[in-house]
């Protein structure tokens, strides 16, 4: 950063240091103070900027990556976008192997950020040579000097949040935080932040949000993988059908499960009450807060930090589309007049 001119050298200097914003309306009936850590303020509009930058810079320090080398990952979501952004600034090739289930909008966004996208068939098993896992692995093995981010099984994912998200929240709350509420996908955000916060005060309660249809909560309770928990659900980026090693279950006190429908309504409510246009999993996190408040988990001295992982613009054809909401049956509890009013 050029201090004299107050100009940033490049967009990567804006990664992290996201604001903590008080929730004033959506949590007004609950005991305690609630603050959102709004990760959409990252330049790539999500918390994944942190892990993309951290993992790539770690590979540079280890001498694995040199300019012109290639970075590989298997995601059409936030992580892919963040890796593409970091790759442009640092001069790397970015290859993303994605499932044919990914929406054209998402694939176009990755291409717009200079990534080479391999679209792989969705309905093959992970060990099929055509699957996006196999394609990424093969490309990584073939390309000397390439780095495979592999966010679900990369411990640097946890380190990124230990180094940045955790200290930021501790400092922003002057150490007064009592509860952390975070969605768990790879588990990197919750685990890394928890490790830092518990190193400062082991009494801080760490609560993960999981989806119905995911194995994570059950695994936390039993330490056993229960495939009968798995069924399709709509929230993207939350929960999983496998156990990621980027989740450190020992630092998480408990999980809460949320539904697709209630999370979608909560995401819309965050926009209309707090003026914060954030994504589906931010809605899931607030839905979790509502359930925890109903259980009596918080009291008037609670200082609760809720992570809002990404921006609402990524969900225009889903949660923020009345048509999509109707198609999912998420407006069924409304009156006929209300339902007609939202049709277009
Ligand atoms: N929300 C969204 C939108 C995400 O993309 C992710 C990442 N999969 C998460 C929440 C969960 O973050 P983490 O992977 O760090 O657990």
From TrEMBL:
Keywords: Pyridoxal phosphate. It comes from the Bacteria. Its cofactor is pyridoxal 5'-phosphate. CDD domains: CBS_like. Residues 12-310 form the Tryptophan synthase beta chain-like PALP domain. GO terms for biological process: cysteine metabolic process; serine family amino acid metabolic process; sulfur compound biosynthetic process. The keyword Ribosomal protein does not apply. The keyword Iron does not apply. It holds the Pfam family PALP. Belongs to the cysteine synthase/cystathionine beta-synthase family. PANTHER family: CYSTATHIONINE BETA-SYNTHASE. This is Cysteine synthase family protein.
């Amino acid at each position: 950063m050029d201090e004299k001119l107050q100009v940033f050298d490049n967009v990567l200097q804006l990664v992290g240091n996201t604001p903590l914003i008080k929730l004033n309306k959506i949590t007004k009936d609950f005991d305690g103070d609630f603050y959102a850590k709004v990760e959409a303020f990252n330049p790539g509009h999500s918390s994944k900027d942190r892990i993309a930058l951290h993992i790539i810079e770690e590979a540079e320090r280890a001498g694995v990556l040199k300019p012109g080398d290639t970075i590989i990952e298997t995601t059409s979501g936030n992580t892919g976008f963040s890796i593409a952004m970091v790759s442009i600034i640092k001069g790397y090739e970015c290859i993303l192997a994605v499932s044919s289930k990914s929406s054209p909008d998402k694939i176009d966004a990755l291409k717009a950020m200079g990534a080479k996208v391999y679209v792989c068939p969705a309905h093959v098993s992970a060990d099929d040579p055509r699957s996006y896992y196999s394609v990424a692995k093969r490309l990584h093995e073939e390309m000397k000097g390439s780095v495979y981010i592999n966010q679900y099984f990369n411990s640097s994912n946890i380190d990124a949040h230990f180094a940045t998200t955790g200290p930021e929240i501790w400092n922003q709350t002057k150490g007064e935080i009592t509860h952390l509420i975070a969605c768990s996908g790879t588990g990197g955000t919750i685990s890394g932040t928890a490790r830092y916060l518990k190193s400062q005060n082991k009494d801080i309660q760490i609560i993960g949000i999981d989806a119905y249809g995911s194995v994570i909560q059950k695994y936390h309770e039993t330490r056993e993988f229960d495939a009968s928990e798995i069924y399709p659900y709509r929230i993207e980026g939350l929960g999983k059908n496998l156990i990621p090693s980027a989740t450190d279950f020992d630092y998480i006190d408990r999980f809460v499960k949320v539904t697709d429908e209630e999370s979608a309504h909560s995401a819309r409510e965050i926009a209309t009450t707090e003026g914060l246009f954030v994504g589906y999993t931010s809605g899931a996190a607030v839905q979790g807060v509502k359930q925890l408040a109903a259980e009596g988990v918080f009291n008037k001295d609670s200082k609760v930090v809720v992570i809002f992982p990404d921006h609402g613009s990524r969900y225009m054809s889903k949660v923020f589309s009345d048509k999509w909401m109707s198609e999912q049956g998420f407006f069924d509890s409304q009156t006929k007049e209300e339902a007609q009013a939202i049709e277009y």
